[in-house]
């Protein structure tokens, strides 16, 4: 049965709003606040993340007020846009998934890894329409797949094809800039599969007529990374430790209370609490230090993209890890 055209309209509105927010945030410098000369820490975030929860809690503002530091929050549609803003000095820190972080390093952007989240393999997936009768990843051979350049879910697509005995050349990628455009392409039938991440993946899974063909289990840890620039981290380590201390508190709460996380974020995201609770239950929000194992995971991802010709040169991921701990 064809999908109703309005089924994903809340997601489309959500991501269009995120794109507009990312453009606006690029105009904001690190400077003295006009009203009272207090410094402002500019944080980039995407929908559905521990930073998003921290924003909703108001805890960071309270913790930094005694230091005379204010906080401004800048929403982005996806990791590539956030990292572009970070590299140009439009924001001071933010988060992005594994693949956008590698692509930023490949592009020579001066971003560094500060910390990582726990694995989140079920938070990415390859979504298809039931009416197209695609039963496995092998059935994607010769099909058009909507994905984004440098998306975490693009990496899932690449390694899932490899596991199925196929290559990236066996599909035709249709590159889009956000999840809304990917879903619209699937609805129209111009592509036969899309790569998505939570909460948009969880929303798709809840829609009649759609199914998750393959998630990241056993293929990708799909970590979120917290990033800044070395120059900012060098000058503001104490500030970053406060940030991660408050982030840790809300992360512990979020891990214990997925239903309350859903209730907090649903009004902000325009997505149902049921969808958000599903996404939150399969996620571990805790931030951890960058370990050699995590570096190895990222190196494998970088090498995979280089092998596909999507990254032009060999990267050394370890070179982009900030050398000092900023975790409390």
Automatic annotation (TrEMBL):
Keyword Transport in annotation: yes
Q: Which InterPro entries match?
A: ABC_SsuA_sub-bd, Solute-binding_3/MltF_N, SsuA/THI5
The Gene Ontology terms for molecular function here are: ATPase-coupled transmembrane transporter activity
Q: Name one Pfam family in it.
A: NMT1
Q: Does the keyword Signal apply?
A: yes
The superkingdom listed in its UniProt entry is Bacteria
Where primarily located? periplasm
Question: Gene Ontology terms, cellular component aspect?
Answer: membrane; periplasmic space
Swiss-Prot/TrEMBL keywords: Signal, Transport
Family indicated by similarity: Belongs to the bacterial solute-binding protein SsuA/TauA family.
Functionally, this protein is described as follows: Part of a binding-protein-dependent transport system for aliphatic sulfonates. Putative binding protein.
The protein's name in its UniProt record: Putative aliphatic sulfonates-binding protein
Species of the source = Pseudomonas putida (strain ATCC 47054 / DSM 6125 / CFBP 8728 / NCIMB 11950 / KT2440)
